[in-house]
Amino acid sequence: MIGDTLSRIGRVGIFLVRVLRHAGVVFTEPRAVVHQIYNAGARSLVIIMLCGLFVGMVLGLQGYDLLQRFGSEDALGVAAALGLLKELGPVVTALLFAGRAGTSLTSEIGLMRATDQLTAMEIMAVDPLRKVVAPRLIGGIIAMPLLVAVFNVIGLFGAQLIGVQVMGVDTGAFWSQMQGAVELDDVNEGIVKSFCFGVACSLVAVYEGYHAQPTAAGVGLATTRTVVISSVLTLLIDYILTAAFLGR
Amino acid sequence: MKPNRSLEIGTGLFVLLGFAALAFLTTQLPGSGMRLGAAQGYKVLAKFDNVGDLKAGSPVSMSGVRIGRVEAIAFDATDYRAEVTLRIEPQFDKIPDDSDASIQTAGLLGGKYVGIGAGGSETFLADGGRIEFTQSAIVLESLVNKFFANFADKGSSTGTAPASDAAPTKE
Fold it and tell me: Which range marks the domain in which residue B84 is found?
């Protein structure tokens, strides 16, 4: 059992190194990478924005309800900004990314495997890692931090909408307290997290697709595994990174 | 491979939006960043001995109603006091020029704001006017210190513990 897990982690690590040897595709085939940024990023934008708005609005409501018990509803801006930047933005975006973009990556590559397209490429001396996997992995890694940033901005807007427009928190207090309390380090923490989640989710997605059983059931199973493993991994990495950032 | 124009435009828009969001987060959220938005209304100056954690953007209120914002806080090295610039909204132009300004706290953990108490003068504050009567922020720690110092004095001078004072009221 432990041996299995260890060898799995090892295989994923070796796979990552083999794919990253082809990181040059960013320069040699920028169009392929752009296509994948479009697939993973631009097409996830609507769901990210919608969820960001609702998460922000809920933060506004819950934050206001909690803070007004202490007569400190002015601190709503700080609470919403830190909550979004450090935790909710990266984590919720990563979970949505795993469901929206990760599954499509896995099933696409898995289906290529099932229909022997990957084998055909190898026969034609085209490395599928370079042609298929590398642009998808890199596209996902580039797209994630941008999606998180959009999520955060929309979320702040949502919190502002509920807190200031509906609940009547003072606009100036909302923004000035936020600007007084949020440090550049807090923003950076979110960016580091989103980058790590981007690597984890994209890597799991392409790995599961590439190593899927070449059957219809196998592709379905691989897609399910992508969502489960990405989600658990995201939350695990989130804990480790939070502990590391707070431990400084 | 024929370049797909709409795909490239879509990706470009997405990347642009993402970087715009990143730029907003890194420049607008931390306090050191730059500010957007045009100011309106007139400026009033006030000097305080101690502004506490009053910040640019904090509300200025009169009788609990917000009438403006703190625009800037600077340090005046000639008399070692903080010079606070208040921007009052144009419809509140009937503030007596002998009004007083004090720095107060909203709630237990709330932010600081400037409260203005109306004076009795017939002339009103104009743009660039100055509020002469000011009261500084109350620093909670010094208040607590003062309280305990008082408490200790009282205990040593009368020679009785505070518990014995409290005893008769219990009955």
Answer: 42-142
For chain B, the C-alpha Rg in angstroms (whole number) is: 25
Q: What is the DSSP letter of A175?
A: H
Residue B91 inside a domain? The answer is: yes
Q: What is the pLDDT of residue A71?
A: 77
For residue B20, give the 3-state DSSP assignment.
Answer: helix
Count of structural domains within chain B = 1
Residue B38, pLDDT > 80, answer no
Cα separation, B171 vs B164, whole angstroms = 12
Listed ranges A43-52, B13-22, B32-41, B153-162; the one with the highest mean pLDDT: A43-52
Q: What are the chain B neighbours of A147 within 8 Å (beta carbons)? A: 18
Residue B17 lies in a domain: no
Is residue B119 within a helix (H) or strand (E), and if so which, with residue range? none
pTM of the full predicted structure? Answer: 0.75
Rounded Cα gap, residues B108 and A70, in angstroms? 6
pLDDT recorded at residue B170: 41
Question: Tell me, what's the pLDDT at A137?
Answer: 93
Instruction: For residue B34, list chain A residues with Cβ-Cβ distance below 8 A.
Output: none
Q: Is A90 or B40 the better-scoring residue by pLDDT?
A: A90
The residues, ordered by sequence, that sit 6+ positions from B101 with a Cβ below 8 Å of its Cβ are B46, B48, B86, B114, B115, B116, B117, B131, B133, B134, B135
Å from A5 to nearest chain B CA? 36
CA distance to partner chain B, nearest, from residue A61 (Å): 18
Complex ipTM over 0.85: no
- B131 touches B46 (CB < 8 A): yes
What is d(CA B16, CA B37) in angstroms, rounded to the nearest whole number? 22
Spell out which residues of chain B touch residue A38, defining contact as CB-CB under 8 Å.
Answer: 7, 10-11, 14
User: CB B22 to CB A85 under 8 A?
Assistant: no
Please answer yes or no on whether A72 and B110 come within 8 Å at the CB atom.
Answer: yes
The answer to whether B26 contacts A146, with C-beta atoms less than 8 Å apart, is no
B14 domain-assigned: no
Best A68, A84, A176, A183 member to test B by mutation, with max B CBs in 10 Å, is A176
